[in-house]
Each structure stands twice: as structure tokens, then as C-alpha cells.
Specification:
It is built from one helix and 19 strands. By secondary structure, the protein is mainly beta. The chain has one domain: Hexapeptide repeat proteins (UDP N-Acetylglucosamine Acyltransferase, domain 1), CATH 2.160.10. It is globular and about 45 Å long.
């Protein structure tokens, strides 16, 4: 599994997390307990830090990166993902914050300093532009994304069930994924 130090900083991955062998993790990255990181995911903490909370799932082909320090932005911007977050396939997250139990749909993009608030959902294919802040428990759609309505209780429950499902699936993969090397091919 491609996990690389960068500038003498080693990724910190909880032993209960599942990291697929085809994911790439570089530098100042922390992955919390029971997370699942799926094939083709690139998590690059080279010019700032990335923190991923517990029981969070980053699905296939997603790209996570940060903002470097500049003259106008001396601290740069990290990428912070809370606990029990659901990140869909081929999502791009750049120097933003995704709060606990939020969901980012397939192919969505979240840009610098934007915030997907607790239990909020950014729909598939949407783009949350720099600095935009979603309200808790809200649904936003479009490019640029706009508030559509509050999320329903059923939607929030469905997201929670999907998160549990991905935690279980990650555990199964961790226990039983066979690579060509492990079976002698």
C-alpha cells in the first residue's frame, strides 16, 4: 500500500482503519479509527495537514489536498474531516472542513475554506465554492451549490446506516482482501 513520508512527516493511520492497497497517502495525514479508504483515493498532506476523524469513509477515486502557505495566506489551509462522514466516489476536497456525520455526494467538489456543516449533504456533482458555509442538516445542490431545503429525518438516518455499512465493509476487506502478492501471483 503506497503510504509515503513527506519532509520527514509520516502519515498516522489508526490500526483499525482499512486502507485499500491502491490508495495513496502522503505526508501529514491522520486517519482515525474504523475509517475506510477505497481504491484510487489520493490523500496528499504535503503542504499542510489532513485530519480524518473516526468511522469516516472516503470512496473510490476521491482526491484530498490542502492549501499551501502564501504571502496573503501565511497559514495556508488544512483539510479537516470529522467523524462518521460519508465521502462519495470521485469527490474532490481541497483545504475545506467537512463536519461530523455530513455527506458529500458522488463527484462533488468542495473548495478552499468552505464548510459542509454537521449532518449536511452536498449533492452529487455539486460544487461548494471557496468560503461558502453550509448550515447544519441542510441539503445543497448545483454548481455553484445553493441551499435547497433542510434534510429530512429519513435522509439523516439513511446516511447513518450507510456509514455503519461502510465500517462493516471496511472490516471485512481488512480481514479478507487477497492481493496477487498474498496468493503468490
Amino acid at each position: 500500500m503506497p503510504i509515503y513520508n513527506f519532509a520527514d512527516i509520516q502519515p498516522k493511520i489508526d490500526p483499525t482503519a482499512f486502507i485499500h492497497p491502491d490508495a495513496v497517502i502522503i505526508g501529514d495525514v491522520t486517519v482515525g479509527p474504523q475509517c475506510s479508504i477505497w481504491p484510487g483515493v489520493v490523500i496528499r498532506g504535503d503542504v499542510n495537514k489532513i485530519i480524518i476523524g473516526s468511522q469516516t469513509n472516503i470512496q473510490d477515486g476521491s482526491i484530498l489536498h490542502v492549501k499551501r502557505p502564501t504571502k496573503d495566506y501565511p497559514q495556508g489551509a488544512p483539510l479537516i474531516i470529522g467523524d462518521q462522514v460519508l465521502i462519495g466516489h470521485q469527490v474532490t476536497l481541497h483545504a475545506c472542513t467537512i463536519e461530523n456525520r455530513a455527506m458529500v455526494g458522488i463527484g462533488a467538489i468542495v473548495l478552499d475554506d468552505a464548510i459542509v456543516a454537521e449532518q449536511a449533504m452536498l449533492g452529487a456533482g455539486s460544487m461548494l465554492t471557496p468560503g461558502k458555509v453550509m448550515e447544519a442538516n441542510s441539503l445543497w445542490l448545483g454548481a455553484p451549490a445553493r441551499f435547497i431545503r433542510p434534510r429530512t429525518d429519513d435522509e439523516i438516518v439513511a446516511t447513518a446506516q450507510t456509514i455503519i455499512s461502510y465500517c462493516t465493509l471496511g472490516e471485512k476487506y481488512k480481514e479478507g482482501l487477497l492481493t496477487p502478492q498474498s496468493i503468490g501471483i
